[in-house]
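Section 5: illustrative case.
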């Protein structure tokens, strides 16, 4: 079974994913995505995946785990965490550990192997976001889970091992440190100024506009003030909301339009780069927060983390966010 281990100095949790193990000498070797042949995520290959836990598009009378779908969610065949078992928190001398209990699911975004998210329609991307929401609402009923991380790896350099357009969710028994630090920083700002820092950022970016990429009625797309890497881009609701799953379907449609346009602009401007996007949201079952604000962080894989970054925690970004935003803003889509 996988195991979660806690670093006693900084409090960082690490997943020791035994189910995904490779030999130590193979760790540095990237696995090439399959080329040609049958893909388990393709239409009419549904029997090549675990049984679906969520699906849209298929007629109610059609059999499950067959063709006719638009979006399909299945358990990951090689999960980082396992759904079975209890947490089993215990000490190991001065260290802390628990069983690697969680959920790891794959969201297959389209039955068409040739289309990635940037080239879906706004409506199709909205179906994917609604699948994210549905899975959060279901999994939050499991009291072992504290946080659900939603993310997408596109391209080998960003960690994708299959070409077919898909994203993933991992339900965790702890809140990730990076999210916890955001929540704590937002809380401090609120205590000092009685305002949400993310709402302040929205107002600032709409006023300044030098880092603004695009906006619609409900969402803002911009390059953050201190981006960790070139062309890091955030998508954030203009109206305050702390939890992604609280968004109604119509607003997720506007979020989908902003996300698809962002990915399309990056593809055109940067030559279809590998990228990751991550949804940061309030921890499960926490009450609505006046200080925290959910958002999407999009990170093109354009640089590598090296010794200085690992040793200091600083990030070196050679592209000012104002220049990156202007470059994306001027892309014709």
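Designed sequence:
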């Amino acid at each position: 079974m996988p195991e979660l281990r806690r670093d006693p100095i900084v409090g960082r949790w690490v997943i020791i994913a035994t189910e995904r193990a490779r030999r130590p000498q193979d760790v540095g070797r990237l696995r090439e995505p399959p080329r040609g042949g049958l893909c388990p995520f393709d239409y009419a290959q549904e029997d090549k995946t675990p049984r679906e836990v969520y699906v849209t598009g298929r007629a109610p009378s059609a059999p499950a785990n067959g063709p006719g779908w638009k979006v399909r969610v299945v358990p990951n065949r090689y999960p980082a965490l396992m759904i079975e078992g209890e947490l089993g928190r215990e000490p190991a001398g001065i260290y802390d550990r628990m069983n690697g209990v969680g959920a790891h699911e794959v969201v297959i975004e389209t039955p068409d192997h040739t289309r990635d998210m940037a080239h879906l329609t706004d409506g199709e991307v909205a179906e994917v976001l609604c699948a994210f929401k549905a899975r959060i609402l279901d999994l939050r009923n499991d009291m072992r889970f504290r946080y659900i991380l939603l993310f997408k790896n596109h391209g080998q350099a960003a960690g994708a091992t299959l070409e077919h357009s898909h994203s993933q969710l991992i339900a965790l028994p702890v809140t990730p440190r990076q999210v916890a630090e955001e929540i704590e920083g937002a809380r401090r700002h609120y205590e000092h100024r009685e305002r949400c820092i993310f709402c302040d950022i929205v107002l600032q970016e709409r006023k300044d506009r030098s880092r603004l990429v695009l906006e619609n009625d409900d969402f803002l797309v911009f390059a953050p003030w201190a981006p960790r890497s070139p062309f890091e881009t955030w998508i954030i609701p203009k109206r305050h909301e702390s939890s992604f799953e609280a968004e109604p379907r119509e607003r997720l449609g506007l979020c989908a339009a902003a996300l698809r346009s962002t990915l399309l602009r990056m593809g055109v401007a940067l030559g279809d780069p590998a990228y990751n996007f991550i949804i940061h949201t309030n921890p499960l079952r926490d009450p609505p927060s006046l200080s925290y604000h959910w958002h999407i962080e999009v990170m093109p894989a354009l640089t590598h983390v090296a010794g200085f970054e690992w040793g200091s925690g600083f990030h070196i970004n050679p592209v000012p966010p104002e220049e990156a935003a202007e470059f994306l803003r001027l892309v014709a889509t």
